C-alpha cells in the first residue's frame, strides 16, 4: 500500500477523534465481532438494503458490505468541510442559472462555450427558464477525499440525482441498535434529521401556482432501478407518495396523481429518473418512464422538478475543472476545498503529457460513473494500458486524467482484525430557501487491500460517519 495518511494513527499514537474507539476495538473478542457482523448483515438483508448490479449474471441484488468500524471527524474538521461544501453548492447553482440565461461566464472567456453547449447534459428545453428560487440542483452530492491531516480535495460533483443517503441513515440506525453504549458514552452529531430537512427543502421550492401546502412525490423508474430501495426508503421517511410515470398525468396545466379517491394535484416532483426519460414529448419519444407534457407544466409554473433537467451540465468531469473559477466568478471568494489536479485531454499539451504518463495516472471518461470506464495506471497491466490508449486516441475529448492520489485510510474490520482501507466521503447538501446539510455523509470504503475504488458496484462497502460534538 502506498504511503497514505492514516486517519486513526500518527506514528504509534492514536489520533484524538479515534481515542474513544481504541479501547472498544482492543477489548472486543473476535467471536463477538463476528457475531455482530453477522447480525448487521442479517439486518441489512431483512430491511432490503441492496444495490442492484446488472449485466454480470446471477442475482443482480447484492448486499451492501457494511463495516462496523465508524469513520470519525472532529467538529473543527467538519466545520471546514461544511463551509467548503456549501460554497461549492452555491457556485454550482449560480453557474446553472447563468448558462441557462445570459451565460456571463462564457462571455467573459472563463469557460469554453463548447464545454457547455456541446455537452450531452445541456438541455435546450431549460434555456431562459428559471426554476423557483433560482435553484437547479437541490441535492448536491460532493465526493471528497483526504490525503493529509488538513488536506481535503473534491474528487467530483453530483448535481443530478446523487444516491447513497439511505445508506448513510441506515448505517447510523444499525450502529445505534448494535452498539448503544458507544452512543451513550460519546457525543456524536445526529443525522436522522435529514428526511425532514429534505422535505423542508422540497416545500421551499414549490411552484408559483401552488395553492396551500405543496403535495410532494418521489418519481422512480421502478423496482428494477439500482437505487429503488433508496427511493422507497425516503418516501416512507418523508411521508410522501412513491410514484412511477404511469401514476401521473397532465391536465389543464397541472400534474395529477392517480389515487383511489380520484386525481390529486402534485406540486413538487423529486425525480430519480434521468432527464431523457422525464417527458416523451420533450426528450426521448420512446420513454415509458416519464409523464407526457410534464415539461410544459414545469415551464409554466404548475409544478417543480428537483433537481432540474439539465443540472448535469454542472457535474461533467471536464466542467469540474472550472468549479474553482466559478467560485471566484460568482461568489468573489477563494475556494475553501481544492480540486484534484486534472488534465483535460482536449488540450494538446495535456493530451501529450497524459499519453506519455498513462502508467502513473488515473484516466476517467468525462461522462462515466460508478467506477466504470476508467484506468488506474499504477494497477493496470501493460496490455490494459495499451488498450485504453487506443480508446483515448479515438476520442481524446471524452477523457480527463488525474494523479493517483494517496487516499487516506480509515481503520476497517477485516478477517485478521483491524486494518487500514482507503475511503472517500459523500456529504449531501440540500439547496432550497437555505443551504444546509447534516453533519456527516456516506463514507465508502475500498474493502480489498490496496484498492482505490470505493464504489459499491466495484466491490466497495460503506461505514457510519461520525462528527463529534465539542
Structural class: alpha+beta
Whole-number count of domains: 3
Tell me how many strands there are. 25
Beta-strand portion reads: 15-25%
Largest sheet geometry: 5 strands, mixed
Helix content: 25-40%
Q: Separation of termini?
A: 34 Å
Task: Based on Cα principal axes, name the global outline.
Answer: globular
Radius of gyration: 23 Å
| Spans where pLDDT lies below 50 across 5 or more residues | 53-59
Describe the protein's architecture and organization.
With 470 residues, the chain is an alpha+beta fold. It folds into three domains: 9-207 and 303-338 and 406-467, no CATH class; 208-302, 3-Layer(aba) Sandwich (Rossmann fold), CATH 3.40.50; 341-403, Dna Ligase, domain 1, CATH 3.30.1490.270. Helices cover 30% and strands 24% of the residues. It has helices at 19-26, 30-47, 75-99, 104-107, 113-117, 165-178, 180-185, 194-204, 228-238, 294-299, 323-331, 348-356, 382-394, and strands at residues 9-10, 13-14, 50-52, 61-63, 66-73, 139-148, 151-158, 216-219, 241-243, 248-251, 254-257, 264-266, 268-271, 304-306, 338-339, 343-344, 361-365, 374-376, 399-403, 409-414, 417-426, 428-431, 435-436, 442-445, 461-467. The strands form seven sheets. Strands 5-25-24-21-20 form a five-stranded mixed beta sheet. Strands 15-7-6-22-23 form a five-stranded mixed beta sheet. Strands 9-8-13-14 form a four-stranded parallel beta sheet, with helices on one face. Helix 2 crosses helix 6. The chain starts with 8 loop residues before the first strand and ends with a strand. The model is unreliable at 53-59 (pLDDT under 50).
